[in-house]
Design brief:
Length: 391
Amino acid sequence: MPQTPNRDNGYAVGVDTPLNPPTWNSVLGDVHTRLNDAEAAIASYDSTIDELRLLGLESFNETITPLIEGAQESVETIQAALAEAEDVINELVQGQLPATAITYEGAGEFASLENVQQAIDALISGSGGGGEFSATAMGAVLQGAPLALNANGTVSAVSSSGAAGTTSSSATAGIGASSISDAVGFYDASTNKIVVAFRDSGDGGFLKMIVGTYAAGTITWGSLATIVSASTIGFTLVRTGADAFALAYYRADAVAGQYVLAGTISGTTVTVGSPVLASSSSLATKMALDPTSSRLVIAYSDPSDGSKAKARVATISGTTVTLGAELVVDAGACNNESLRVVALATKIIIIWRVTESTDHKMAVATVSGTSVSIGAIFTHAIAMASNNIAT
């Protein structure tokens, strides 16, 4: 039987295969069918690829694109926070605004240098003999800037931490206190007054205040006022306006805790309102006046909650203090000695030292009504053994 060419034998022909039209039609017809099948398969493949591409693009748009957009928003947020923090750090580091102006309302306007110098020169001479004192100013002092009475008879501007020195016994004779320690104060150029708060170590550690009025090169002191008749430590005194202030302190007795009160000044007479408990366990509250809201931002380490750094807003109305909700600034433990609240021209920053890692961190705080929030946290010093943070 003659060999028939087909796809199985590769269309091979034998010596006896008749090469006539029926044979050629059979072979070419089969090839034609196979070509049509191949073209259809290719078309189907191309169509499938197109569908897969379209499906993949839609899936990408539905899932990946939102992730990219979210990441871009996060990057923009971080960049904005970095820029904001950079502005704050520049003000501190580059001297655009001295960091000692932490309680100054309208920061940047220096009081008359001569006025300030004369007022401070009369503060704590050590000469005794009535209400006139002199001192040497250790650096420039701004309106509202906190002052510390030093053991060597000088007065220095300090940060809002409430850090202070002590005066010699002769320097305290004229104001009726037996032994001053932990003194803090500020000079108000708008009223030519010096406001001082201190612990009277010779009188049970009671918290006392005195106001002096400067005129013609002389300070005339008013009467010494006892603010808290209990042992007290850890003071922060902040100017909140002309003849107005806020004072934070720790009371070490049966009603122990960190308190904040507000006061007003009439002449050289101090009037204070009822103290408000800010923290029952913290030993020191740091605070500064927010320049944009005129509210206080207070911060403290809470030993009853893992020594976490916390912050809240204090609203002052006359001599009344109202506290806002408490915010956890950092979940890690921090030390009270390292905590700082610093007010610059338009911003508040909170600085602290993490106990475990010993890193120094900072964040910008924003006040909204009676609430405070913080931006991104930045580590500005790594593994620093000291709690001392200069502001």
